[in-house]
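Session log. Operator J.P. requested a structure for one protein chain; no other inputs attached. Running the standard single-chain path with token output.
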Amino acid sequence: MSRLKRRIFLSPPHLNGRELDMLREALESNWVAPAGPHLAAFERELCAVIGGGYGVALSSGTAALHLALRALGVQAGDRVFCSDLTFSGSVNPVLYERAEPVLIDSAPGGCNMDPKALARALHQAEKEDRLPKAAVIVDLYGQSADWRKLLPLCEAYGVPVLEDAAEALGASCADVSCGLFGAIGVFSFNGNKIITTSGGGMAVAHDEATAHRLTFWANQSKEAAPYYLHRELGFNYRLSNLLAGVGRAQLQTLKERVARRKEIYLTYQNAFAGLPLQMLPVPQGCTPNYWLSVALLEEDAPLSAQALIDLLEADNIEARRTWNPMHCQPVFRRFTYVTAADGISGSEDFFRRGICLPSGSGMTAEEQDEVIRRVCRALGGGAACG
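Structure written below.
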């Protein structure tokens, strides 16, 4: 089969046409700085969509995590428990504050933090009299973490939770939206996320006072004085009014985006029946946003994850490995890594067998058919996969 002329991307930005109206409005009003009506409206509207909280729109999800850690009182020398299977932006802010990340394994066959590994880590930390100051728990690939088990564990030890819902806007579990499970939740609006502001993020606090503190820090900790006065360290982290306008336009079609990505996931699932490739299962009682369609190769698959990705790339189709676990990254290798049982790593197994398939909400049915045909051909499905 010949190489496709038009590249099929993994999860490209998907514009709905309303962004230009919002940008024009911001430009005509001259509100282009990190202040303005779009900024406040974006914060309100996102919190209305998820069903609560007070939003603070920021320059990135990483910036939101950083300020959230400060709000939870994390300081130099503190321990912070972190999901091991994630993007480095989930852990980097811990080091910004010169704290010590402890990396917690993912559950076998899944991608999110393993409650058994967390219980083991908390028990050991209590014995050492070094309980973490906070736990950063990720909702990976748009799937809710196992909050029904993770939250009670953290509450039992008095450990506040920072929910990294960067990839999970529009997802929920037990009728609670992702981003509302922790003391503070964080979203990302990077170019490949389910909605984008090109770059940006948001922290969502449960109380207005915390949101005000985050906003204060994000605006360089400038005091309300008739001259420049700074009593605390501040950061240049506020989102611009222009980009907030883009976010507002994108947010209007969030439900349609989730529905389309679910359709893509289910189409892959049906097409791959009988192949040594299984779609990432959906946790019972939870509703993902299906941000990326992730598949796991079975042990008897005729080729590795990287080999399959290379074959797709040869056909001009973008697919990617899943996140490389943090404990395997040179920058984090010196930190403690905790599994549920010695010698068994759920995150390493997930990385070894996982592949992220094209799943952008703007992908056409014809483009997905091309991906399916090429995956089936690579895995020996032949005509059975169309």
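Operator note: The chain has a mean pLDDT of 96.
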